[in-house]
Amino acid sequence: MYMIWGLFPCAPYDPTVVITTRTLEFFRHAHARCPRLSIQAFVKSLCDVHGVPYRPYLCQQFTICYDVYLEVLRWSAEWVRGKLGRGERWRQENACPACTYKLEGEPDLIFSMLWTMDGNESLRRVIRKERTSGEVDENGEAVPGASKEREDGRDAGEGYFLDRDRVDEWAKAKVASMLPTDDIPGAETPCSDRWKNMVNDITSKMWGVFDETGIFPALCRHGFVLILVDMIRSGELAKYPLALIDELLDTYGKNQGGGYDIGCHFEATIRNSRLSERAQENALKMLVGAFHGHAHNRLCQLSFLATYIEGLGLEDLEGCERFFSKSNDLAKCVRYASRFHRQQDITQFIKHHDSFETYANLSKFLCNNYEQALDILRTESTLREWMRKEGIESGDVFKEWLKEEKEWLLQKKGSSGREVTLEMQYVQKLVNWSVCKTKLNTIRREIRQAKAADDNYDPATDLKRRRALQHASESLTQALGLVQDLEDRLDIDPNNRWTSTSVEWIAAVKQLREKKFSDALDALELLIVERIFELTKINRSQTGYKMRRHIAKALQTRSEAVKNAISRYNIAAASLEPPAPQLSWDEVVEYAFLADFDFLRATDGELLDKPWTRPAYRLAMDRYFKIIRAKEEIKRLNVEIRRFITWMSDEDRFLRRQEEEAESPGEAALIRKHRMERGRFDAGHMERLVKLSKKRGFTGLIMVCGGA
After folding, report:
1. Which residue, among 641, 115, 703, 33, has the nearest Cα to 364 in the 3D structure?
2. Among candidate residues 336, 324, 342, the one with its CA nearest the CA of residue 120
3. Where are the domains of the chain?
4. Distance in angstroms (rounded) separating the CA atoms of residues 695 and 582
5. Which residues does the annotated region (Disordered) include (predicted)?
6. Both ends of the chain: CA-CA distance in Å?
7. Backbone phi and psi for residue 147, each to the nearest 5 degrees, phi listed first
8. Over residues 649-671, mean pLDDT
9. d(CA 603, CA 580)
10. How would DSSP label each residue in 233-295?
11. Are 290 and 306 in contact (CB under 8 A)?
């Protein structure tokens, strides 16, 4: 009865408080636009407007009314979906008009669908528990109390959340055997050693105070949420992306490209899972997002990074980071919510974001990417002129350089981690033995000189010298023992010990210097990786003031560490024959990627005659592939623009026909409301696209085409 009047009661019988539909609808949109706006803040604002004092129970009453209102909206949306003949999976199968609305006669794309996925721990939820009983576990930690949350089987996911039971099919016991190991042929990937944390994450546990510890979504390249899963009492376990890929293969079929910050390593995980055959049949390709390239070595970049992947265009595969920058604002509202209310809040945010942010800006995305591609193509003439001056006949030369570089990196794979050989140890022990002999002789000479000068005799000084003599003698004996042990293991005659002029000595010293150089380079590279990660963190949205100050202070200390590492590297580089390139502070700080570190590992001068190692040629090579990607982007955008225009026309015509055929004015009003939710933006979309079509270089068609 109350709903007929536009009122929602806080109780089924004799309610003391009712909330108007307009108020609830206003809060729904305001909360979606500003996720930080909590129910408590909104209710306090209402109290201020109505001139009444705030009471805590008003929040509970408003929450009840709001839950009922959202349930009515869900019923309404389900009814409309049924009238339109659209099943439960229709939203997911048609999540993005530009990605999924395929047309007759359109050109084939290397990647029929591009998406990105990642985990985010901001939207974690505290689980309510009883007070601890004082018991401790085997590690001496307090045993948490039992959960005191009531069972709530309601589902507010509306098709966005993947079922937890389906995710658990990829649980720890099953996934552990899928993770790639070095003894499995073909499982090793260029960045395996860098991402060993993935193996550790298989057993990682979030603090016991949390139940859901975050979300793991997959988004299309335009930003529409395709599907997501809850991370439950854990970090980014492998079961979450595996479950998502299983669902994405079911929904979108062949030739998908998926971005993931550890896509290089995760491709091997897929290869060793039961998804392997399906992934190969559907030509699934895992990729690495452009902004995560600094954490991957050059060989990995050539295989997985956007610039060098044919068919990827200008897509950066970093949509999750942009989505998280907005969804993180929900954290305060869901931290202490119930499981149902957390899921409801996230779902409402995603629905609003898809319709009023992503869809509203879809034409802007397409136009901006088109203009970016055209800007890149305008630099092609400059590149062609440079190629002519350098005697480079065609772009095939750049492709050959890239092939040579990859082959060289594959040959050198693993050479940075040089093992210390017995010969290297033997030379080092001989050097140590020689140092001990020199030290012992020096102490003996000082004692003889002191005895010769009787007037300067001091008992305390004499005792100190004799103690030093004993220690030096013991050190010499110990050093000789180590030398003799290695001589036995290497079958070297003590009468023919190596000397600094021996061929074997010279070869071992060369290996030692290369080992020290490699270690110094590895240490410098690690510090640069850490520095880039910290700089990313310090600029991240929602990083608190104290945390930013702490990171900034740590960076100042780390800068000194980087300078010291550069100094050690330059000393080691100068000791090589021929000497390796010296590095300055400015060069290291400006490194955006780690690619150049791999070339520094060439210690034998083998790359001196390779043009692709020279900065100017490498810049030209990257520019060439950027131009190729820009051409691919325009080809994809021409397809996506036609899909989008056709979808707008077909959807509007279909919904208007359904509205006219409705059996009652009420039904027609619901369908009209559904049509206008996104239809309100269509005129603006067409205006942008028509304006784009008039730009020089546009090669697409602004016209409606037949559906597939």
Report:
1. 641
2. 324
3. 3-83, 110-127+148-358, 422-498
4. 48
5. 134-158
6. 47
7. -65, 140
8. 94
9. 6
10. SSSS-THHHHHHHHHHHHHH-SSEEEE-TTHHHHHHHHHTSTTHHHHHHTT-EEEB-GGGGGG
11. yes
> Residue 507's CB: how many other CB atoms inside 10 A?
13
The label of the residue with tokens 């045993």 reads: 143
343-382 core/surface letters (b: 16 or more CB in 10 A; e: else): bbbbbbbbbbbbbbebbbbbbebbbebbeebbebbeebee
Q: Helix, strand, or coil here: 108?
A: coil
CB neighbours of residue 642 within 10 Å: 21
Radius of gyration of the chain (CA): 34
The 10s digit of each residue's pLDDT in 376-392 is: 999 999 999 999 999 99
Distance from C-alpha of 143 to C-alpha of 134, rounded to nearest angstrom: 7
3-state secondary structure of 3: helix
Q: How confident is the model at residue 1 (pLDDT cuts 50, 70, 90)?
A: low
What is the structure's pLDDT at 465? 80
Question: What's the average model confidence in pLDDT over 130-140?
Answer: 65
Task: Indicate the helix (H) or strand (E) that contains 317.
Answer: none
Q: What is the pTM of this model?
A: 0.77
Poorest-confidence range of 69-83, 187-201, 209-223, 369-383? Answer: 187-201
Q: Report DSSP letters for 553-587, one per residue.
A: HHHHHHHHHHHHHHHHHHHHHHTSSSPPPP--HHH
C-alpha of 308 from chain center: 18
Name beta bridge partners: 229: 216
Single-letter code of the amino acid located at 521:
L
| pLDDT tens per residue, range 45-66 | 999 999 999 999 999 999 999 9
- DSSP code for 134: S
Band of residue 548 on the pLDDT scale cut at 50, 70, 90: low
**pLDDT for 665 beyond 80:** yes
Q: What does the pLDDT read at residue 389?
A: 92
134 — alpha (psi -120 to 50), left (phi > 0) or beta?
A: left
- In the chain, the amino acid numbered 647 is W
Count of Cβ atoms closer than 10 Å to residue 551 Cβ:
17
Mean pLDDT of the chain: 83
Residues 8, 68 contacting (CB under 8 angstroms)? yes
- Token couple for 229: 């899963």
What's the pLDDT score for residue 550? Answer: 59
State phi, psi for 118 to the nearest 5 degrees: -170, 160
- Whether the Cβ atoms of residue 24 and residue 66 lie closer than 8 Å to each other: yes
Q: Among all chains, which residue has been given the structure tokens 């000393």?
A: 571
Cα within 13 Å of Cα(169), Cβ side: 14
Over residues 157-178, the mean pLDDT reads 77
What band does 206 get if pLDDT is binned at 50, 70 and 90?
very low
For the segment 320-354, what is each residue's pLDDT rounded down to a tens digit? Answer: 999 999 999 999 999 989 999 999 999 999 999 99
Residue 513 and residue 427: Cα distance in Å, rounded?
Answer: 12
| Structural tokens at position 607 | 């790359």
What does the alpha-carbon distance between residue 204 and residue 215 come to, in Å, rounded to a whole number? 16
Coil, strand or helix: which one is 496?
A: helix
| Sign of the alpha-carbon dihedral angle for 430, 435, 436, 442 | positive
Contact 101, 654 (CB under 8 A): no
Question: What's the sign of the alpha-carbon dihedral 420, 422, 423, 424?
Answer: positive
Residue-wise pLDDT for 401-455, tens only, equals: 888 888 877 776 655 555 668 888 888 888 898 999 999 899 888 888 777 766 5
Separation between Cα atoms, residue 584 and residue 447, nearest integer Å? 47
Joined tokens for residue 338: 């119930």
